[in-house]
């Protein structure tokens, strides 16, 4: 069935083993993030059989589907409306709001389970967490967790690059380490985990320059796409083609390159202009913007050119292709992170697996 995502489990296992060994060399545990592939059962099983410390996801719906031996970490700040769901489907969660923390404690007490909380600290990226200079609130919220009957102050964490684009460095990661040390002194708590961010820390990992005291990372894009998100470039030694989009040609015609007639907005309210490039060999593929972020696709055949898309159709220019494509042929693309996220979220995209050898 097409369209489909081809998933190479051998390449994913290589990436997983490579990253976990790199973390081990740096004295760091890793949570492998499953959200971009919506906690696909086969990939989750691959992670669970390895040496990762835990699996992590931002959606309780995904965590609920995981039948795993390892702990599950909720990445997204918890919603009060899902407090009971959080403590039921995850052993660990990231938190920053006192009112939500109180509800989590009540929910955990209700089901007789102890839940671990990582207190998020905002070191400048301005997404989640108590701002790092608000020492009083950090201590107060950490104490609330530490004194809760059914919660454990399991760690402190930071998120970088995802919103503000702030890169990890000795200053912000060092500041997180100092926050953990301060809370240990103030509360007498162990605080075993200091979670220093995500795949944007890859450069520091490779250089063995992660500040001492950072002992945990959440790795997603580096695992699935082999990228250092701080630079947008591949990490040497990692596969970047673990996932390949396969889409079928449903129409192949020679047509003018410039639409004819008076123009207005397209189906997405966009006013687009097309240059006149003469007659073009245009193929329509059976996938569209409902399923994938088209801007995040790179054709495996470098002579294929993406020229546009509607909800259900992807239009490509095959004029310069040396390969003789025909209707029914499959055109393949490497998706970026956003495109991959859309592909796995779409119920209209099939999954093809290349099994472990």
Strand-residue proportion: 25-35%
Q: What share of the residues lie within helices?
A: 25-40%
CATH architecture of the largest domain: Alpha-Beta Barrel
Q: Quote the distance from N terminus to C terminus.
A: 23 Å
Shape: elongated
Summed up, the helix count is 10
Secondary-structure class: alpha/beta
Rounded mean pLDDT score:
96
- Tell me the Rg in angstroms: 23 Å
**Main β-sheet: number of strands, strand sense, barrel status?**
9 strands, parallel
- Briefly note the CATH topology name of the largest domain: TIM Barrel
Describe the protein's topology:
Layout: E1 4-8, H1 9-25, E2 29-33, H2 41-48, E3 54-57, H3 60-65, E4 72-74, H4 83-89, E5 92-95, H5 98-111, E6 115-122, E7 130-131, H6 135-147, E8 151-157, H7 170-187, E9 193-195, H8 202-207, E10 216-219, H9 221-225, E11 227-228, E12 233-234, E13 243-256, E14 279-285, E15 297-299, E16 305-309, E17 314-317, E18 330-335, H10 337-345, E19 350-354
Parallel strand pairs: 1-19, 2-3, 2-10, 3-4, 4-5, 5-6, 6-7, 6-8, 8-9
Antiparallel strand pairs: 1-13, 11-12, 13-14, 13-18, 14-17, 15-18, 16-17
Helix pairs in contact: 1-2, 4-5
Summary keywords:
29% helix; eight-stranded mixed sheet; TIM Barrel; 2 domains; alpha/beta; nine-stranded parallel sheet
């Amino acid at each position: 069935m097409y369209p489909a995502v081809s998933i190479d489990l051998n390449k994913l296992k290589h990436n997983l083993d490579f990253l976990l060994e790199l973390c081990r060399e740096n004295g760091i545990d890793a949570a492998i993030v499953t959200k971009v592939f919506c906690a696909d059962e086969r990939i989750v099983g691959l992670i669970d059989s390895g040496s990762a410390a835990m699996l992590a996801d931002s959606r309780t719906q995904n965590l609920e589907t995981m039948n795993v031996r390892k702990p599950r970490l909720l990445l997204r700040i918890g919603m009060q409306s899902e407090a009971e769901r959080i403590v039921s489907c995850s052993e660990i969660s990231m938190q920053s709001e006192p009112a939500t923390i109180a509800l989590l404690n009540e929910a955990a007490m209700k089901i007789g389970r102890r839940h671990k909380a990582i207190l998020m600290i905002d070191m400048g990226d301005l997404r989640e967490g108590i701002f790092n200079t608000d020492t009083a609130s950090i201590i107060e919220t950490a104490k609330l967790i530490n004194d809760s009957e059914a919660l454990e102050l399991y760690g402190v964490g930071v998120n970088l690059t995802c919103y503000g684009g702030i890169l990890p460095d000795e200053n912000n990661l060092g500041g997180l380490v100092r926050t953990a040390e301060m809370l240990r002194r103030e509360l007498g708590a162990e605080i075993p985990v200091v979670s220093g961010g995500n795949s944007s820390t890859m450069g520091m990992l490779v250089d063995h320059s992660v500040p001492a005291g950072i002992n945990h990372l959440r790795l997603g894009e580096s695992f699935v796409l082999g990228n250092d998100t701080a630079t947008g470039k591949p990490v040497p030694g990692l596969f970047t083609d673990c996932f390949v989009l396969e889409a079928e040609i449903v129409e192949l015609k020679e047509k003018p390159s410039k639409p004819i007639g008076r123009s207005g907005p397209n189906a997405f309210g966009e006013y687009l202009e097309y240059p006149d490039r003469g007659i073009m060999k245009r193929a329509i593929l059976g996938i569209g913007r409902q399923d994938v972020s088209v801007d995040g696709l790179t054709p495996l055949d470098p002579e294929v050119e993406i020229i546009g898309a509607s909800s259900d159709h992807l239009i490509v220019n095959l004029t310069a292709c040396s390969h003789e494509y025909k209707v029914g042929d499959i055109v393949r693309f490497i998706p970026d992170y956003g495109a991959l996220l859309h592909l796995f979220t779409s119920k209209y995209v099939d999954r093809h697996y290349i099994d472990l050898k």
